[in-house]
Q: What sequence folds into this?
């Protein structure tokens, strides 16, 4: 196993469990304790983990932290429902689309089950599941395959290879964070590579992200802000952030999240951000 693969495994374990032990990693990876300690030293020098006696830990405030799908699915429910409703308006019968992993794209998938003739490519286990269970017989669902992450994304070489052979009309991408300098980011190294392939597979890119994602920076960048053809977010986004996004993305759609899940209407940004530049 290459050093990068070992280090990715170590970061995945820390992200899932909050801590790792040298002895356990050595046993799972089939390498010596010294090799694991060298990997931990390297990752510590990069600022990706904190070494402790016998292992390493990561704090919840780090760029590696990634809550699991179940935890994230309970957050910002009204906002995600409103964003999903606006995103579904971009989809017409017979389109070929792609959905990345994430709880907002999952909310969108639930709204696609009544649209006829769709071909949907996804690297999300929950998205594929809801479309299989609730979808139509005239819809085609293509799952990339790959290694599963805490956010229930399928990532890695298998997923990337599959996506590089596919071309779709529109890609919907959920993100961990968005920032003027870092762009759209994820706390998962392999997920970033997979999402980059997903972006390249689409003629247009629509990012779906609620206001809490602004200013959050994951370890790896997926795309620049100006690569988004459409960004759909909610009214909780502060005016300064709206202005920055309006300057960089081609079209900014701000939705109003009602008190009831699923409520919400698209509203133009006061600064003209909803206009295509």
A:
């Amino acid at each position: 196993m290459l050093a990068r693969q070992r280090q990715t495994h170590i970061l995945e374990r820390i992200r899932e469990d909050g801590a790792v032990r040298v002895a356990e990693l050595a046993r799972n990876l089939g390498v010596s304790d010294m090799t694991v300690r060298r990997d931990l030293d390297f990752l510590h020098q990069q600022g990706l983990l904190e070494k402790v006696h016998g292992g390493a830990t990561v704090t919840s405030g780090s760029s590696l932290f990634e809550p699991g799908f179940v935890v994230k699915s309970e957050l910002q429910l009204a906002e995600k429902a409103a964003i999903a409703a606006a995103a579904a308006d971009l989809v017409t019968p017979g389109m070929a689309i792609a959905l990345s992993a994430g709880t907002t794209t999952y909310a969108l998938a639930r709204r696609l089950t009544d649209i006829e003739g769709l071909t949907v490519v996804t690297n999300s286990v929950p998205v594929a599941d809801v479309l299989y269970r609730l979808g139509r017989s005239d819809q085609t669902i293509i799952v990339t395959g790959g290694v599963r992450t805490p956010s229930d994304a399928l990532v890695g070489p298998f997923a990337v290879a599959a996506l590089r052979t596919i071309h779709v009309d529109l890609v919907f991408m959920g993100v961990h964070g968005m920032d003027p300098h870092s762009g759209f980011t994820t706390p998962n190294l392999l997920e970033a590579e997979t999402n980059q392939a997903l972006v390249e597979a689409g003629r247009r890119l629509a990012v779906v992200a609620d206001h809490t994602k602004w200013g959050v920076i994951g370890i790896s960048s997926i795309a620049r802000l100006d690569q988004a053809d459409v960004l759909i977010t909610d009214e909780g986004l502060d005016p300064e952030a709206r202005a920055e996004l309006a300057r960089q993305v081609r079209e900014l759609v701000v939705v109003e999240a009602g008190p009831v899940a699923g409520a919400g209407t698209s509203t133009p940004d006061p600064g003209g951000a909803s206009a295509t530049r």
